[in-house]
Write a structure and sequence with these properties.
By secondary structure, this protein is mostly helical. It is built from 4 helices and 2 strands; from the N terminus they run αααββα. It has one domain.
């Protein structure tokens, strides 16, 4: 499986986990455990101090694109999350639509995850 295929499956998995419905039926191949942990980390935790937890997605351009889309859908305009990769490279991800504004203070609710998932799917349509 190519890196691009893995990243696409990762994006689908993140969308499914944010929606609270598990993996999508079309994901026949197992998802690498580290990617499942990244997606679960996004869905299960509040974003302490405006920063993203350390995760594998930060290490690839496609992964950072996925994170940028999630943050853009979830957080309001004027909000930004920062992340530093394992090699010390800083990144910033800007909010946009504000469909899950409470994510900074608490784990996103089921309704918030569903709205973010819908946003991600519409942007990929």
């Amino acid at each position: 499986m190519s890196g691009s295929e893995i990243e696409m499956k990762t994006m689908a998995l993140i969308a499914a986990i944010l929606a609270g419905c598990g993996a999508e039926p079309g994901l026949a191949e197992p998802t690498p455990p580290s990617l499942e942990r990244d997606a679960a980390s996004l869905a299960a935790h509040r974003l302490e101090g405006g920063s993203l937890p350390q995760m594998r997605l930060l290490g690839t351009p496609r992964g950072r694109d996925v994170l940028a889309r999630v943050v853009s859908c979830a957080l309001p305009r004027g909000t930004a999350l920062t992340a530093i990769t394992r090699d010390g490279t800083p990144y910033s991800f800007a909010g946009g639509l504000g469909l899950a504004p409470g994510w900074i203070e608490h784990a996103p609710s089921g309704a918030e995850r569903a709205r973010v998932t819908a946003c991600l799917r519409l942007r990929d349509a």
